[in-house]
Amino acid sequence: MNWNSLVLDKQNGKGWITLNRPHYNALNLELANELIQALENCCEDENVKVVILTGAGEGFCSGGDLEAARESEDPDPSDYWKHLTRRLNRIIVDIRYLRKPIIAAINGPAAGAGLSIAAACDLRIAARSAVFKQAWTSVGLVPDGAWTLFIPILIGFGRASEMVFMDPVLTAEKALEIGLVNAVVDDDKFNEEVDRWAEKLKNGATEAFARAKELLNESMLSLLEAQLSRERREIITTALTGDYREGMHAFLEKREPRFKGL
Length: 262
Prior knowledge:
CATH class: Alpha Beta
Strand content: 5-15%
Strand order of the largest sheet: 1-2-3-4-6-9
Number of domains: 1
C-alpha cells in the first residue's frame, strides 16, 4: 500500500518502520493510523522476524502534533485528544502483543507520545544526539500511551516523578544511566549497530522470544489496558482546562506558559 506519513521497508527478515512527518515526526491522526496498519502488516508477514521502529530526518517522534490540536480546538478542545489517544492506545497494545521483538531505534528527540511508543518497545537503542522529554505536563496535560506504567518500570518511581513534575530534557547518556535505553551509539555508527541487533534477533529462537514476551507482558504489564483507559480519561479532562490552552499556545509561540491552575 501507499504510505503518506511513514515508510515500511521489509527485507531479509526485518521490518523497518520509519516515521516520516514534519516537526520531528509529530504524531497526528494520519500517522497514527498508518503506524497501526504498518504494525499489523509486520505482524501478519511470517517472513518478518524482527521490527525496527525509527524516525526520518533528525527526530524519532516529538509527540502529539500541537499544530493539529490547535486547529481542532474549537468547539471542543478535547476532541483532537479523544481521537488521537484512542489510536495511540491501539499502537501501544499492538507493540506489546506483537509476537516479534521490536526495537526502538531512537535517532533523535523522543518526547511525549514518542517517548511512550519507544518505552513500549522491547529494546531501545539511542543515537548519541538523541534527547528525551516527558513534555505533557509542560503544556498542561497528563502523560498517556501507558507512560505512567512503562517509565516507572524502566527507571523507577522517583525518577519518573521527577520527569512528571520537573520535565527535564535528558541526554542519551543520562537515559542510558537511568535505564531508559539499552544502548547509546555514536551517530555515525547508529544504523550499523541497530542492524546488528536486528540481525541477531532475526537469527535467534523466535518462538522462544514470542513466548518470553508474552510472559513479560503477563508479569509486568497486567494493568496495561486499564492504565491506558485511565490515562485517556485524564488527558481528555485536562484538555478542557485553561492551563492546557495556555500551555499549547505558549509552546507554539515559543514562550514560557503562564499557568493559573485552572
